[in-house]
Specification:
Elements: H1 17-20, E1 25-34, E2 41-43, H2 47-55, H3 62-76, H4 84-94, E3 100-104, E4 110-112, E5 116-122, H5 130-133, H6 135-138, H7 142-165, E6 178-180, H8 189-199, H9 209-219, H10 234-237, H11 245-255, E7 261-264, H12 270-281, H13 283-287, E8 293-296, H14 302-317, E9 320-321, E10 327-328, E11 333-337, H15 346-355, E12 363-367, H16 369-372, E13 382-391, E14 394-397, E15 403-405, E16 411-413, E17 423-428, E18 431-436, E19 448-452, E20 455-456, H17 462-468
Parallel strand pairs: 6-12, 7-8, 8-11, 11-12
Antiparallel strand pairs: 1-5, 1-13, 2-4, 3-5, 3-19, 9-10, 13-14, 15-16, 17-18, 19-20
């Protein structure tokens, strides 16, 4: 499988770089950072997966080299770009193991943007080209970092509205307020696995089962960190037609007489379903359950629909006022909104409930494509840049500093200006800062060697990562 052939996991243009680096180049050092973007903080997560899946052990072999050579001759249409001997050297000298050192901040660490999160450098001067050859693959860490960051930022919003409107007892369930519905909307099983596990750093609710699989397989999660409940879809609820909807509802309650169960209720008329079916015909059965029915609207304007749904449910089931003066449905009834949920739509929803005197604890959310798919590398402006080199024994601090024009034609300093020299990440009075390696020797470097010469040197458990990322 090409996926497993590391020799082919680079942008095509990189195969010419062994010739394009100035003669005498011996060492290349590059670092990875979030240069800014949507959020002021970034969660570092996912590197361990890439190290385990792609980089550890003897990843360069003759068989893979043969496959890569045939493909690359086709790609370039010439035989003076790909140099087989560069990889044969790694096989002969290093047993197929990569002579590079990777340092990184502990996974789950939350830093401000524009900080070094990872560095990579070759350990064999003959393999100076290898550092940035690995950029293509290692840059993909942007994805789990971004999903983990997005999920955590949403948790901040939820905590804000819980602090303002929810009872103290309700805080115990906050890890289940945002549920991952994104498996089917992800671009691949791998994306769903690493992105789904990234969400689970912050929350425990998920239908993306592969996220739990990844957390267990690559991060030693002792049990599946993503939990779910029995729930319907429209194919179940519409099976007997509109006239039979209430019979389906009754069957669902009879099938799961205890525990939490969710039911999509907008197949025909969400308001009739809430008032006449759930709130009248099935009311006593619901209130006598040892568990919670979660009613799911799935269409229409989220705010207007939710306000009307809560109005009906509170009329039919009643409500109490919590210690902050906000309305709370009986514990046997809750609502989940899974349609149109995104980072931008969540605050207005909770604000509308607050203005209507409704506690945030009445509502949970399901988020699909906007969680696992509506992100890209520029969401947090991730980049990997060279900042240090050694050529013919001389050390050089390397920097990119573009001259830019703004929309008015005026010059400005580019946000793409890179760091200069080998870097370290330090904690200075509780704040992470990136500094040149030789500055502030009294401050410990927070970057840890995680990979060296084909071996993973440091690993993190999922529980450790969750603790590192806690708000």
């Amino acid at each position: 499988m090409t996926k497993e052939n590391l020799i082919l996991l680079a942008d095509a243009y990189k195969y010419s770089h062994h010739k394009l680096y100035i003669p005498g180049t011996e060492y290349i050092y590059s670092y990875f950072e979030s240069r800014g973007g949507k959020f002021e903080e970034t969660v570092f997560y996912g590197l361990q997966y890439f190290l385990m899946e792609y980089l550890q052990g003897a990843v360069i072999t003759k068989e893979k080299l043969d496959e890569a050579e045939a493909t690359l001759l086709e790609v370039f249409g010439r035989n003076d770009v790909f140099d087989r001997s560069r990889f044969e050297y790694i096989i002969e000298k290093h047993g197929g193991r990569l002579p590079v050192r990777i340092k990184a901040v502990p996974e789950g660490t939350v830093t401000g943007v524009r900080n070094v999160l990872m560095s990579i450098e070759n350990t064999d001067p003959a393999c100076y080209w290898l550092t940035n050859f690995l950029e293509t693959l290692l840059m993909q860490v942007w994805y789990p970092c971004t999903v983990a960051t997005l999920s955590r930022e949403i948790k901040k919003t939820i905590k804000k509205y819980y602090s303002e409107t929810a009872s103290e007892a309700a805080f115990a369930g906050i890890d289940f307020v945002l549920n991952d519905f994104g498996f089917r909307g992800a671009s691949s099983v791998e994306s769903a696995g690493i992105g789904g596990s990234a969400h689970l750093i912050n929350f425990s609710g998920s239908d993306t089962l592969i996220g739990s699989t990844f957390a267990k397989r690559y991060y030693q999660a002792p049990v599946a960190p993503g939990l779910s409940i029995p729930a319907t879809e429209h194919s179940i609820v519409t099976l007997l037609g509109e006239e039979g909807e209430v019979d389906i509802f009754r069957h669902i309650l009879n099938t799961f007489p205890t525990g939490t169960v969710a039911c999509v209720s907008d197949s025909y008329n969400i308001f009739r379903a809430c008032k006449e079916y759930w709130g009248t015909e099935l009311k006593e059965q619901i209130l006598s359950r040892e568990g919670t029915l979660v009613i799911r609207p799935d269409s229409g304007d989220a705010i207007q629909t939710l306000l009307k749904v809560f109005e009906i449910l509170m009329e039919t089931f009643g409500y109490t006022l919590n210690e902050k003066g906000y309305k709370v449905l009986p514990p046997q009834v809750r609502v989940i909104q899974g349609d149109g949920i995104s980072y931008s739509s969540i605050p207005p929803i909770f604000e509308a409930l607050k203005q209507a005197g409704i506690s945030a604890e009445n509502l949970v959310l399901g988020m699909g494509g906007a969680l696992l798919q509506r992100v890209n590398r520029d969401t947090q402006e991730f980049a990997l840049k060279c900042s240090f080199a050694q050529v013919n024994g001389k050390t050089i601090n390397v920097q990119k500093n573009p001259l830019e024009l703004d929309a008015n034609g005026n010059t400005r300093v580019s946000f793409k200006k890179s760091k200069s020299g080998k870097q370290k990440l330090v904690l200075d009075n509780g704040t992470y800062k990136s500094l040149p390696e030789n500055e502030a020797p009294e401050l410990k470097d927070q970057l840890v060697t995680v990979f060296e010469n084909g071996e993973i040197k440091t690993t993190y458990t999922f529980n450790q990562i969750r603790k590192n990322a806690i708000i």
